[in-house]
Specification:
Blueprint lengths: L1 H71 L2 H40 L2
Helix pairs in contact: 1-2
């Protein structure tokens, strides 16, 4: 009689363990999907904003170069001054890239992965 009860309890434990493993696997699949979608949407938003800012910057740069060219009566001077400005900005960004870019990206992705 007691062996039947033990066998019955063992079968029950195996069924419960199987159900637990299936639910855990389903949970982690959903969690992975959620993290992937948050990351993807964040990257797409960033790309769209970057595209818009790039267009504004492009047209603003051409307008500034033409305005400077009219002032100096030389198209080459206007475009060289705008190009030099971007060269200086690029050099400054290169110097502070670790603090600005990597820190903010690491912070944002850590927020997505670990705050849920």
């Amino acid at each position: 009689m007691s062996f039947d009860k033990i066998k019955e309890n063992t079968d029950n434990i195996q069924e419960e363990a199987q159900a637990y493993l299936e639910k855990t696997a389903a949970y982690y699949k959903l969690w992975g999907f959620k993290v992937a979608m948050k990351s993807t949407t964040m990257i797409l938003k960033f790309a769209l904003i970057l595209l818009c800012v790039s267009m504004v910057l492009l047209f603003g740069s051409v307008a500034a170069a033409l305005a400077i060219a009219c002032y100096f009566d030389s198209y080459a001077t206007g475009f060289l001054i705008v190009g030099g400005f971007y060269l200086v900005v690029t050099f400054l960004l290169f110097l502070i890239k670790d603090k600005v870019v990597e820190g903010s990206i690491l912070e944002k992705f850590s927020e997505i992965f670990f705050n849920d």
